[in-house]
Design goal:
Number of strands: 0
Largest sheet: none
Order of helices and strands: HHHHHHHH
Shape: flat
Radius of gyration: 23 Å
Helix content: 55-70%
Number of helices: 8
């Protein structure tokens, strides 16, 4: 057995230095993530206010998604997606596929060939979610007075275009959905 891979050749001082570097990097990454999340919350709050909804609704998980679907006149889609996710979960449970309780080895060795319900559930959920996301991006773009190019941006770079919606001159007008 190669001892170079199993034992440390670092002195305590070197190990402390490496630990300090790794710790500093972790603090930097976490601080960046917190700043990004705060900006995201502010952006959502502003978008909700532009659409005439109270800003506090933007910080409640799941409910904020429902309200955004309501803003772009897609409330029924929210319930369809929720139902399809629920049905897909049940179909996968019947096949014995639960990635949250399975080990990595069990997932890797899972024979999808003899479990068609899992494949059908995953494909069904993925296709419907993709279609809903495209329609959602288009309707969000339209309701805030933008065109197809902005919808493509919302689909591929949502964090950047979401900030543009929040902090730009976009105005909410539900009548634009009817055009």
């Amino acid at each position: 057995m190669d001892t170079a891979l199993t034992t440390s050749t670092l002195t305590p001082t070197e190990a402390a230095f490496v630990g300090g570097i790794v710790g500093s990097m972790l603090v930097f990454i976490l601080a960046g993530a917190c700043i990004f999340y705060i900006i995201y919350i502010i952006a959502n709050w502003k978008i909700f206010k532009k659409a005439g909804e109270p800003g506090w609704k933007s910080i409640i998980p799941i409910y904020n998604v429902y309200i955004m679907f309501k803003i772009v006149n897609m409330k029924s889609w929210f319930w369809y997606l929720l139902g399809i996710s629920f049905c897909a979960g049940i179909m996968m449970a019947f096949d014995g596929f639960n990635p949250y309780t399975m080990t990595e080895a069990q997932i890797a060795n899972f024979n999808f060939g003899i479990h068609p319900m899992t494949i059908i559930a995953l494909i069904m959920e993925s296709v419907v979610t993709l279609i809903a996301t495209i329609i959602y991006a288009h309707r969000t773009s339209k309701v805030f007075g933008h065109g197809t190019g902005f919808a493509i941006g919302l689909f591929f770079l949502p964090f950047i275009f979401w900030l543009i919606l929040a902090f730009g001159s976009s105005k909410y007008d539900k009548k634009l959905l009817k055009k």
